[in-house]
Amino acid sequence: MKNSKKISGVLALSLLAVASAFAGNSNTGKLKVPVAVTVGDKQIPAGEYQVGWTGTGSAVEVTISSGKETIAKVPAQVLPLNKPSTGNGYGTFTAQDGSLSLTDIFFDGKKFELSIGGVSAAAPAASAKAQGSN
């Protein structure tokens, strides 16, 4: 009887582990950009990307990837929003030469955004800003 309880317990824990693996990482999202943008020191072409972030608190590292290939890794801050975002999107900064730098990524239903490179759409500056949606 004791062995069957142990086996049942082990099976239950195994099922929980498998279920949590399939549940996925909650620190992920999607980014779709219709034009090339600079992320950190890398320019990424227009396309659809996976975004993941690791870290605790407000300082995180954002990884942008396409399939299994890592395209860019940059430090970022998690900034709280007053209300959940109503869609996936991003913010950009337009430099004097016309190039775009990714500044923010936000996700549908989330009450935070990822601010990249210290320039955030949540805190507008005197420079030109643009926003898009995923």
3D structure, described in words:
The protein is 16% helix and 47% strand. It has one domain. It is of the alpha+beta class and 134 residues long. The strands form 2 sheets. Strands 1-4-5-6-9-8-7-10 form an 8-stranded antiparallel β-sheet, with no helix packed on it. A two-stranded antiparallel ribbon has the order 2-3. It contains 1 helix and 10 strands.
Strand content: over 45%
The spatial strand order of the largest sheet comes to: 1-4-5-6-9-8-7-10
What are the secondary-structure elements, in order, as H or E?
A: HEEEEEEEEEE
Write down the overall mean pLDDT: 79
Give the termini distance in whole angstroms: 55 Å
Helix/strand/pairing class, anyone? Answer: alpha+beta
Question: Percent of residues in helical segments?
Answer: 10-25%
Radius of gyration: 19 Å
Please, what is the oligomeric state? single chain
Number of helices: 1
Largest sheet: 8 strands, antiparallel
Task: Tell me the number of strands.
Answer: 10
Number of domains: 1
Spans with pLDDT under 50 lasting ≥5 residues?
7-24, 119-130
Q: Assign an overall shape.
A: globular
